[in-house]
Write a structure and sequence with these properties.
Length: about 400
């Protein structure tokens, strides 16, 4: 298993990056006092507590802190920086650079999940450049420069090369033309492209970024298995949660109940679902992406003399059948079920005897393991249909992946 060293300048930053390792089942310790540590046999996060120091003091502090620890062998060395560029970024990068002597420095501080992006070299918070936000007036460490290229270039004689979104998305990053590189980043996928291109150089790299780049590295080197969701609820709450998850990268497979009532084969949905999961994408099965989908199914059922209740039961059983067939040929982290009828239909059809409760991931939303049946031990989250916040399905798909 790769051994990671993460160097952070404050305790909260050390923990929020270290937990990404723990989620993937990698034993990790956070160290705030090296004198108390005799030997480091695992991946670790070092908190240098240097954010509030002056630049020269921060350089010396970080250099002294890591000098002995870098005598250990690490597969990845990562300098964790604040996602809004606070702190002594350049002096601390140089301190590690002087000891570690990397062949490449990769600087990409974007963290798209929480609104930290970089476009045309300018780092932004929720679309506003950092120096125009309250971060620029931070009482301890005001941010005076949000142009990544200028920020690094001021501290280095070496040429700093910046790579824009077009280069990143076309895969045209030339990482041989210089030792030091900064990057735009607007989406998680951008960060994945940066990581893949950098790893393919086979060079000794000092990675520099926020928790966003760290997560991208872990996603490439130790990817999670995707999660499957089955959304049988027709509530507006569930539809808004479904579309939020889609906006954040989940794939939606729309199950056309009307067509199935008219004789369409389920196999095409099963095959498509298996293909999506095989690509590592989270998959959501939905029978009512829009209100019109539900009304269409009811109208077709009416023509077949099926009452609403019968169409509803057919829908839940069909979703469960498709979900189970997909699971038979897929490797997933777990399954998310919303809507009481959907959940019990799935449990009955996979011949489980029940579940073992692990924890509550959000108030009113439990994480369990299926007990017995075809998928004994598979993680499962259930949620009432007309309940919760917009982000709850997306959040739950992520929680299923964690190895805590």
């Amino acid at each position: 298993m790769p051994k990671y060293l993460i160097i952070a300048d404050d305790f909260t930053g050390a923990n929020d990056t270290g937990v990404q390792l723990k989620k993937r089942g990698i034993e990790t310790q956070v160290i705030v006092n090296l004198k108390d540590t005799c030997e480091i046999n695992t991946s670790c996060v070092i908190d240098t507590e240097s954010r509030g120091l002056g630049e020269k003091e921060a350089y010396e502090s970080v250099r002294n802190y890591i000098r002995d620890i870098l005598k250990e062998e690490f597969d990845f060395v990562y300098k964790k920086v604040d996602s809004t560029l606070r702190g002594n970024l350049v002096s601390e990068i140089k301190a590690i650079d002087d000891i570690y002597k990397p062949e490449l420095i990769i600087f990409a501080p974007a963290f798209p999940k929480i609104g930290r992006t970089t476009v045309d070299k300018i780092h932004k918070l929720n679309g506003i450049r950092i120096i125009e936000t309250e971060i620029a007036n931070d009482p301890k460490k005001p941010v005076k420069e949000d142009n990544l290229n200028k920020l690094l270039q001021e501290g280095y004689e070496d040429k700093v090369i910046h790579h824009d979104l077009l280069e990143i998305r076309r895969g045209e990053m030339d990482l041989e033309c210089s030792r030091i590189h900064s990057f735009d980043g607007e989406t998680d996928e951008d960060l994945i492209h940066i990581v893949n291109a950098s790893i393919n150089t086979n060079k000794k790299i000092l990675w520099v970024g926020s928790a966003g780049l760290a997560d991208a590295i872990f996603a490439v080197k130790k990817p999670f298995k995707p999660s499957l969701a089955i959304v049988g609820s027709i509530s507006e709450v569930s539809r808004s949660q479904l579309k939020y998850a889609e906006k954040n990268g989940a794939s939606i497979l729309k199950i056309d109940i009307g067509k199935l009532l008219n004789g369409e084969n389920k196999k095409s949905y099963v095959d498509l679902g298996i293909d999506i999961l095989a690509k590592g994408k989270d998959l959501i099965l939905s029978s009512a992406y829009n209100r019109e989908d539900y009304e269409k199914a009811i109208n077709i059922g009416d023509k077949k003399f099926m009452p609403k209740e019968e169409v509803s039961m057919y829908t839940q059983e069909t979703l469960a059948d498709i979900g189970i067939e997909i699971l038979k040929s897929s490797h997933v982290s777990g399954v998310f079920l919303t809507g009481g009828d959907t959940a019990i239909s799935f449990i009955n059809k996979c011949e489980a005897i029940g579940s073992v409760i692990i924890q509550e991931v959000i108030t009113g939303i439990p994480l369990m393991k299926i007990k017995g049946g075809k998928f004994d031990g598979l993680k499962m989250i259930t949620k009432a249909g007309a309940f919760g916040r917009e982000e709850d399905i997306y959040y739950s798909l992520g929680k299923l992946k964690e190895d805590l």
